[in-house]
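tl;dr need the bound structure. longer version: we got a ligand (flavin-adenine dinucleotide) that a collaborator sent over and nobodys looked at where it sits. i said id run it. heres the input, straight from their email, havent touched it
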Amino acid sequence: MSEQHNIIIIGAGLSGLYCAWQLQQKNQDVILLEARDRIGGRILSPEYNKSHFDMGPAWVWPQLQPRLNQLMSQLNLNVFKQFTSGDMLYEKNPDETERYNSQSSHSESYRIEGGSQSLVNALQNKLPESSIHLNTLVQKIHKDDLSIVTLQNGKVVRYSANKIIFALPPRLIQQNITFNPALPEEINNTWKSIPTWMSGHCKILFIYDKPFWREQNLSGEVFSHYGPLSEIYDGSPEDEKLYALTSFVGLNAHQRKQINNEQLITSCMAQLQRLFGDESQNIRDVQIKDWSLDENTTTETDLNSPIQHPQYPADIPRHFWNNQLILAGTEVAQQHGGYLEGALESADEAISLCHI
Ligand SMILES: Cc1cc2nc3c(=O)[nH]c(=O)nc-3n(C[C@H](O)[C@H](O)[C@H](O)COP(=O)(O)OP(=O)(O)OC[C@H]3O[C@@H](n4cnc5c(N)ncnc54)[C@H](O)[C@@H]3O)c2cc1C
């Protein structure tokens, strides 16, 4: 026996959730199957003392991102400006740090109040609880009856649909989902060639009671050639009940495997001491999210993550099996691939391919 629905969406990240909400507004019978025990995918803003800190995406650019802008206003979400007042630091080596007066690469960036998680939480609240099936890992798709084989807490559970929307990175589909009959080799190769944006990265957050860097007329923004942190920003929440420095680790996923978290944090603390002085050592908490270790985002191929934002190909085939399989997810967005806006753009394209 299998549970039957008109449209089944695989992946409850931003793309899948937005797709589900749009389709429900068109009175479609739609459910989401999600491998993790939580929604959001790459969006992750854990709570610490009632404040939320972004361990995945943090920045939005409402003036350049029309879908995201509209969605945030529909969901009554507010943005606040990324803190960039003060000087930026450039660490050339441990003995040489340059200070740049009032410069920032993020003077036009905004963050979402309550963290990016507010976006997916608000979408979840719009959907019936029964439409999101967590802990449901999709493993196989059969063409003859368009059935989906999933693993739910060690048990095989089947679904069937009239259409299936894949709202997850193409590399994950290629690596983890079997198609019967197999898709052409050309499609597999194309999917494998599309990098999953930011999947090889590691973010570390340092939470403080006081913004000591602001008191030194520093914005908190740092670029370092030496590391281990290559980029640091002010990651304080909008209510400023607590403060934070948020950072990206410069070591790649392979280099990070050679050391443990304790060693990594010790050398990060030494770097913060060099850059900001003694007060940087009074951390209240430190949080680490290494996306390269997360199998629901990252494949082996993604461990060699691109440093620059990839140019996603415009000609990725978006539908298969007589339009019964449709692709969404930010990596297949033509204009804003990789970004939150791309997750929405690809969902809109997938919905238009449903011809409802
Ligand atoms: C560290 C970091 C920083 C970033 N910074 C920014 C930023 O500042 N601004 C910005 O615009 N973007 C940023 N991004 C990118 C942004 O997070 C993504 O564009 C967006 O979240 C992608 O959404 P998605 O729904 O397409 O994919 P995902 O969020 O990856 O969702 C895919 C979902 O599919 C699920 N899934 C996977 N395999 C299966 C399976 N077999 N069965 C069922 N479910 C499955 C996953 O668990 C996941 O929930 C950042 C990403 C990271 C990791």
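gonna send this back to them w/ a short note. The first helix runs from residue 14 to 25.
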